[in-house]
Amino acid sequence: MLIVQKFGGTSVGDLERIQNVANRVSETRKAGNEVVVVVSAMSGETNKLVAYAEHFSSNPQKTELDMLLSSGERVTASLLAIALNEMGCKAVSMTGRKAGIITDNLHTKARIEEINPIAMRNALNEGQIVVVAGFQGVSAEGNVTTLGRGGSDLSAVAIAGALQADLCEIYTDVSGIFTTDPRIEPKAKKLNRISYDEMLELASLGAKVLQNRSVELAKKLNVNLVTRTSFSHEEGTLITKEENIMEKPLVSGIALDKNQARVSLRGVKDRPGIASEIFNKLANNNVNIDMIIQNVGHDGSTNIDFTVPKSDLNDAKNVVHAFLDSCDIKEESYDEDICKVSIVGVGMKSHTGVAAKAFSTMAAENINIHMISTSEIKVSMVIAEKYAELAVRSLHNAYRLDK
Amino acid sequence: MLIVQKFGGTSVGDLERIQNVANRVSETRKAGNEVVVVVSAMSGETNKLVAYAEHFSSNPQKTELDMLLSSGERVTASLLAIALNEMGCKAVSMTGRKAGIITDNLHTKARIEEINPIAMRNALNEGQIVVVAGFQGVSAEGNVTTLGRGGSDLSAVAIAGALQADLCEIYTDVSGIFTTDPRIEPKAKKLNRISYDEMLELASLGAKVLQNRSVELAKKLNVNLVTRTSFSHEEGTLITKEENIMEKPLVSGIALDKNQARVSLRGVKDRPGIASEIFNKLANNNVNIDMIIQNVGHDGSTNIDFTVPKSDLNDAKNVVHAFLDSCDIKEESYDEDICKVSIVGVGMKSHTGVAAKAFSTMAAENINIHMISTSEIKVSMVIAEKYAELAVRSLHNAYRLDK
Question: How far does A139 lie from chain B, in Å, by closest CA?
Answer without folding.
Answer: 13
